[in-house]
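Schema walk-through. Below, the input block comes first and the output block second. Nothing else is stored per chain. Lengths vary across the set, and this one has 204 residues.
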Amino acid sequence: MIWKDRPDRAAFGWATFAYDTALREQMERFGGMNIRIDHPTPARPMNPTNIPQGASYPWPAVGSPLAAEAAASITQCGRPSLHCVRDRHDLGMLLLADAHVHRGGVWSCAPTNNEPARVAQAILLARHSGDHELERSAVAKLRQRGEEPVAPWPEYLFRQSVADGAKQYAKAPGGDLGDLPMLKRKPPVYLEGPGFSAQSQDGR
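--- output ---
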């Protein structure tokens, strides 16, 4: 994807999005089942311990070549971006990641403001692909993070935000997420099997 920079309309940025092709059409109205791959500018390499910021470059004038820095970024980061996500399971694990995952000089974008939605997406992907290991990883994250508040709302819990995301994604054809709205109720019991089902503590 290439876009004009909002603060500076004379600049542009680019990034790669890795989609799950089997769920892309169903999830299109929700932005797709994907993870964004970002990169640093060649002149300012990113320290992996820092929160990444998208790189931007001068928008070329008509008939002019790309700025050298922009061409260098595509040369250096294009191929690593295309190969950052290894397979469907890896995509799901990147969706579950607590922070940006750095590989080969690029990173998967994992902002905290969409973390619960990414958990719901990972569960949908796990069920669609029959990936029980991925779903167990999602259950483990729900157990660990479920009762944490989601900033900036102290009474809105992580599991409740996951439930709201799942309610939207369940509208997609084949969206097997009917049990996740249960996460809005009392603290659930996470029952593991081939996958898991979320039930409230009173079993309903």
